[in-house]
Specification:
Length: 290
Amino acid sequence: MKKLLLIIFLAAGLAGLRAQKPAQNQTLLWEVSGKGLEKPSYLFGTYHLIGKQFIDTMPALQKKLALSRVIVGELLFDSLNMQKMMPMMMMQDTTLNQLLSKEQYEELGTYLHDISGMPIAALNKMKPGALQLLIAAFSSPVKVKEGETIDQQIQQQGKAAGKEVIGLEQPGFQMNLLLGAPLAKQKAALLKMLDKKEQLKQQGLQLYEYYTRQQTDKMVRLFNDPEFIDKEETENILYKRNRNWLSQLPAIMKKNPAFVAVGAGHLFGSQGLIELLRNAGYTVRPLSTK
């Protein structure tokens, strides 16, 4: 169950890959300077289900990591307390076979077994929202070993080099964000996902391709597709958190040059971190990862 919980956290947005050369201004790596910063800081957009080998092909990223004195992530992976988090994944007063119809339960069980090999009976107390994230993780084009995602690797590198590592959020906050909705709403979203599983799988493949090619314009269009994520989810999962992070980042960057590694969906668009930082008076410019 420890590995299962980690998968769920990582799925909130692929080993053996090489970074593709991005088009001009389409890159996952950005420099933040100005507004009193003595040294620049850096933004890097991650894909939570991609392997550490991807960043091994990015010499510029490794150089900027070395120049930074503090590593900033969405959360500290070392702070994950599995025993405390596990109850938040579980339903207290019902089970999946009670929440769903017999036909829905059987269809879900067949699909879960096909993609994960896990029997639905072992997951019968799990919240529908947790199952959605589990399905997203197991539907990923390439599987990643535990502890070897980009986000984890960047924090591990920083820690090994004696750098300060900071989490912008607490694990409990993320868990509540992802799994705190009423069960009826989680159920509806799970059934929609099940109904559109082939379409969503194709969108996942597209996101994987766009990310590895650093085609950020296409990523933004996909994030704006209501079939991929609805407006309420966009506001709660991306925009509100971006604004909260913006309230924390200036002090962090002023104290020490920082390497900020968060999901790529948080960087782009009119309410992404790049534009928010520019609107706050910083200079933010794209950098090649090569």
